[in-house]
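help with these tokens:
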Amino acid sequence: MADVILYNDDCIHAMKNLADSSVDLILTDPPYNLSNFMKERDTNLKQLRENFFGAAGWDDLNFEDWEKSMDAFFEGSVRVLKDGGSMIVFMSILKVETIVRIAEKYGLYYKTTGIWHKLNPMPRNMNLHFVNSTEAWLYFTYKARTGTFNNDGKVLHDFIESGIAANGERRFGTHPTQKPERVMEFFVQVLSNKGEVVLDPFMGSGSTGVAALRCKRKFIGIEIDESYFKVASARIQEVKNETNSD
């Protein structure tokens, strides 16, 4: 697909195929390293959702191995990211400090930690404690204190609210941590310009790719799981078809 490159591969390996300083924005949602933590807690999440991420097999590393994988991810990311490029990484609040430490090691400038507030979260354990309705995202720029920021002179707060991914966004298949297209489009529009390159090394079901193409950006997506890769490819191809017919 023109303006789209997709890899069904491990991101550390696949990013070696990309040229130095070739990406304007990295927008991604890596594993949070919460699977083992969640399994040990009093939760009925698995019963409420069939594709519980803790049972998927891609989020069950011990902390030391996960930290090494994130280190390798950031090392590969800064090689392909342009000077002045931006990065958004979704992450658990529990791991924010670790991610900032690793990112700064590779020359990324930490800007802020923001929040995605889910307006319709799963009401698990609602009679036991507060319902989990938020996820964090971290904003970095590379070798610059300021990058592209298309706010049109308006104040942009460090949180975004939306529902979870709608059923229409899951028609090609489901992913347990799928991000809604609206959220990804927000970051694509603010932190990149038309014609620029957006990379998602943990593509999952392809929401970043859909957002990038709808915003008229080029897209590179990497996903190691074959089933999720097929879902992402179908979603992205559908948007390409819509774009070509306009």
Remarks:
- The chain is about 35% helix and 20% strand.
- The chain has a mean pLDDT of 88.
- The helical segments are 11-14, 35-39, 45-48, 63-80, 96-105, 181-191, 207-214, 226-245.
